[in-house]
Design brief:
Number of helices: 10
Helix content: 25-40%
Strand order of the largest sheet: 1-2-3-6-7-8-9
Order of helices and strands: HHHHEEEHEHEHEHEHEHE
Number of domains: 2
Distance between the termini: 46 Å
Length: 324
């Protein structure tokens, strides 16, 4: 409804969608749909990106990815654009900025999911409702079963500032005696672990997956982090307190490590820095654009099969360039 002949600009870059299909018209429509909502706001973090000419690469990439997602899952691309556009009218509000990064993380991960080489006659569903009313991001229904995906990205701005400011960082709890923590604080400041958000992501995903059949398929939590990927790695599998290990710091009423029975694997993707750098018009030495997941030879992402879960087919983590 936002497209008319006057606004149809043939100078928008030609874009090729999945399997070589031409999505030029759909990308133009997605771009204009986003532009009309974002530029009409009194303030939006992406107002500049959708106002420039020649067109800003990140605005085009958002439109291209959402149009591709729409071609696989009708309605999903539109909802993702609406979510990005809705974070508006609060000048320089950092919660809105971090929310946009989280929306873009969802776009990134869903694009990887729909382009996985699934079997024929695979169906995709965006935010399907489970029997408990909870909605994970994506359900993939194949002849081999159902695969559910939940996407999470932390709010890291304050944590990133702590990293720069403080002399010492503890990537995981249990590495240093608690009674001596104050000494580290006094010796130039201490950056504490970010394992509480990881714990919350696991609990939330487990609850969302609980409303779906577990007989065949698998359930995956995908966490999008920044370049300091050792932080979620340490939070998940540290020998002294990792949340997926028997030494987890999160205990149940019997003082045993809490398990997340509906999660079969966790994928951690190192990407938030690419979004931030691309939005700030800074160069990306090893990526084509802010949504490029990297080519062979680039630093890999990480896949953690859970010790209690179903076996996840290798082609799924491979699509994320995630190694065990």
């Amino acid at each position: 409804m936002f497209l008319d002949e006057y606004k149809y600009d043939s100078r928008l870059p030609d874009v090729e969608g999945p399997n070589g299909a031409q999505l030029n018209f759909e990308v133009r429509a997605a771009y204009l749909f986003a532009r009309d909502q974002i530029t009409s706001a009194s303030w939006h973090w992406l107002k500049y990106h959708f106002s420039t000419y020649p067109f800003h690469s990140m605005a085009i990439e958002i439109a291209r990815h959402c149009a591709c997602i729409e071609s696989f899952i009708p309605g999903a691309g539109r909802k993702l654009i609406e979510s990005i556009a809705s974070r508006k009218n609060r000048e320089k509000n950092e919660d809105d900025y971090q929310g946009i990064l989280q929306d873009m993380s969802e776009v990134l991960v869903i694009m990887q999911i729909v382009n996985i080489p699934w079997p024929e006659e695979t169906a995709f569903f965006y935010e399907p409702a489970g029997s408990n009313g909870k909605r994970p991001e994506v359900q993939v229904s194949t002849v081999g079963g159902n695969y559910l995906f939940e996407v999470k990205a932390p709010s890291l701005l304050n944590h990133q500032r702590d990293r720069q400011r403080n002399a010492t960082q503890l990537p995981t709890r249990g590495l240093f005696p608690l009674e001596h923590i104050d000494e580290l604080v006094d010796q130039g400041g201490l950056t504490k672990p970010r394992d509480n958000p990881v714990k919350d992501f696991l609990l939330s995903a487990d609850e969302k997956f609980a409303g779906f059949d577990r007989s065949k398929g698998g359930n995956l939590l995908v966490i999008v982090w920044d370049d300091f990927i050792y932080e979620p790695i340490s939070s998940l599998v540290s020998d002294v307190s990792g949340l997926l290990t028997v030494e987890s710091w999160l205990k149940d009423e019997n003082d045993e490590a809490v398990v997340f029975p509906n999660i079969d694997g966790v994928i951690v993707v190192r990407h938030l820095n690419y979004f931030a750098e691309a939005l700030a018009d800074r160069p990306l030495p090893d990526r084509r654009d802010g949504f490029d997941c990297g080519q062979a030879g680039a630093l890999p992402n990480v896949f953690f099969p859970t010790r209690w879960g179903h076996k996840i087919p290798s082609f799924i983590p491979s699509a994320f360039r995630a190694v065990d």
